[in-house]
Predict the 3D structure of the following.
Amino acid sequence: MNEANPQEIVRKRPKQARAKSTVDSILAAATQILTDEGEDRLNTNAIARRAGFSIGTLYQYFPDKEAILVELIVRQRAEMEQRIVSLIESRPEEPAEETARRIVHLLVGLFRSGRQARKSLFTVMLRLFATQSLPQNLSPVSYYIIIAWRKARGDNLAPLSDADAFVLTRAVRGVLRQAVMEDSPLLDTPEFEEALALLVISFMQRAEQKASPP
Amino acid sequence: MNEANPQEIVRKRPKQARAKSTVDSILAAATQILTDEGEDRLNTNAIARRAGFSIGTLYQYFPDKEAILVELIVRQRAEMEQRIVSLIESRPEEPAEETARRIVHLLVGLFRSGRQARKSLFTVMLRLFATQSLPQNLSPVSYYIIIAWRKARGDNLAPLSDADAFVLTRAVRGVLRQAVMEDSPLLDTPEFEEALALLVISFMQRAEQKASPP
Amino acid sequence: MNEANPQEIVRKRPKQARAKSTVDSILAAATQILTDEGEDRLNTNAIARRAGFSIGTLYQYFPDKEAILVELIVRQRAEMEQRIVSLIESRPEEPAEETARRIVHLLVGLFRSGRQARKSLFTVMLRLFATQSLPQNLSPVSYYIIIAWRKARGDNLAPLSDADAFVLTRAVRGVLRQAVMEDSPLLDTPEFEEALALLVISFMQRAEQKASPP
Amino acid sequence: MNEANPQEIVRKRPKQARAKSTVDSILAAATQILTDEGEDRLNTNAIARRAGFSIGTLYQYFPDKEAILVELIVRQRAEMEQRIVSLIESRPEEPAEETARRIVHLLVGLFRSGRQARKSLFTVMLRLFATQSLPQNLSPVSYYIIIAWRKARGDNLAPLSDADAFVLTRAVRGVLRQAVMEDSPLLDTPEFEEALALLVISFMQRAEQKASPP
DNA sequence: CATGAATGAGAATTCATTCAT
DNA sequence: TATGAATGAATTCTCATTCAT
């Protein structure tokens, strides 16, 4: 009868359909504000207003402002990850180079759209990283991708070391992020996409050679 | 470069010299706070207090808070750039691969030290990018490096396209930043450095092949 | 006093019985929160949650938050009063000094237990006093005790004036409250109890002398 | 040059005359609100407004709301203590009984005036006690008084034990507080004062007898 | 030039209470 | 009767910036 957890104020978990849609509205509102007005206009009152709820409602679903941002990032990452993984699994027999090219293509496309929101989200993410408050399970997404890749092609690809995997994934991410942050016109060119694909492919081939010399 | 004997300068241009040291104190204070307490403790009053000046004085040297941050970033970039350029120029005859390795080594070293301050600075930089208020001349630092590289070796290196240069420089920066932001233990390993160097070298070789096929 | 067999009552007046248990649950929950988390965690939502009811249900039984607190205090006072009265009535022939000692002993025991809840309750009570919203019939409890005392021993004790009664009762209460509020270790010592008894007895004897000089 | 205490935001300490008067204004405003409107109208904005300062100024002198209340209590206690001590020291040769009577007279007078403010202050004090945040040196005021008393009369008075001193001082305080809180009309009567004096005197005489039996 | 007291808009968060279901 | 989602006024506190001295 009594609550198990008296200390923590238990925020409503979105089990009901209504609750779910409320949470979605709030996150959508936050994204909109990030897109339209930028990070420093992003305050809880504005989010609630734009979502069409009172500020009190917002706080029934999120313990604090940060939780909203974290959820935003979590969802965005999950979506990206899931897209990439399914892309990899869709054509297991495809040559690695081709798959890499298609992943890069997908990523470039994703980063091209919704630049403004992404820009602000990057800043937010970086701050959360700096504050140590981003859940640990956020970062290693990239490893799953690499693992999926290997699995899909039956491990006949030389395994990447931890350091190699880290460098490769962060490099791709870093290039895309920076392109968005700098509003670089390159982002829209095929040359950019080609260069990024080249980065991935050349690295993987070299890493492969290194791992298994003739 | 502009200064020789500090004593003399103090006599000659007392105000400017004093101003310079005041500005330096303020920037140093800001860096300290970023290091010790993180970005959200960084407010103008705290900076002034730590610098040993009154808040009024701070505003005599900087128009607003952002100006302090911008100056911080400008100086940091300038220092890095200058180190890299002089590294490149020091051994013009060295093979490109070796130079790349040494640049990577230098960069990794720089990012390893002062991680905490750098972490906060990254966040700040990203926000300034997002707000569009970073002066345009901040970003293309990397191009200078590439130009310096080519110059130093008499252009016998195939020229990198804009897209290639962008991708390469942002990739390196992105990997290092992310390593710092994630507090990755990899940053301290030789494997990490090796992988990063590999990224650069393999990309340059492929880009070269592409540019000038046999 | 009003109840005999709980089973039977449930059958006879199901709604009232249910209501009673609901009210009791709510009050118990409030007491628990006061004990475990202190006064400023005591909010209606928390009470309802801990009681296992919805907030709406809580408002079906209490018009507002204050009503809960008042009821809490009323019950606590009633319980104390009733214990003391029955203690007095249990040994009418006992010398006044001895009865005083036993009352003090009882009170000290009551205050020793449940200190934390009592602490918060005191604060709440005091605020209600300050807001004038405590029902008037709450305070004079002490008079009943004194009256009961006199009755029990057939008025052969010199009557205490209003002022004397006020001072005596408030003194005892004040000492005990303060001991609880200060978390005084004295509260657990026999010396404390002895001193408090001395306060009561010496005052009564002097008041007696004053009232009826030889 | 750099601050010693980077973590703690150092609030201005009232060294300057202006600062001192600002602090005084703020405390006076708080007292007024307590008097005129009661505790739950006492919010920081109201205090600042009534003091004629902006809210920001208030927070330059007090780290948080509680600090204002604590300071209020500290000052009030200090004033009372100082009055009583000087009363005791003014007539060292006076019989203890007479001094007790005069102390009681003084206290009753103090509590009679400014009842409303005192009422709210009591509530506040009690809450602070409950939260453990009242500085330790607040409570033992009473001991100083007792010590002063003994000193003033050359220790020919039997020493009170800790328990006795606690009981006596808290009893007096408790009676006066309760009289104020209940708005008791007794507070204005000579009978009340007489009864309170009696409480003190009879207790001290008995305690004395107990300590040094013939 | 330097000072630092003062400003006040703005942001996050709480919680008693209502009311449609 | 019971529910619990929603409300929104109210409150605490921050911090970039100004300006009289």
In short: Chains B and C do not touch (no CB pair under 8 Å).
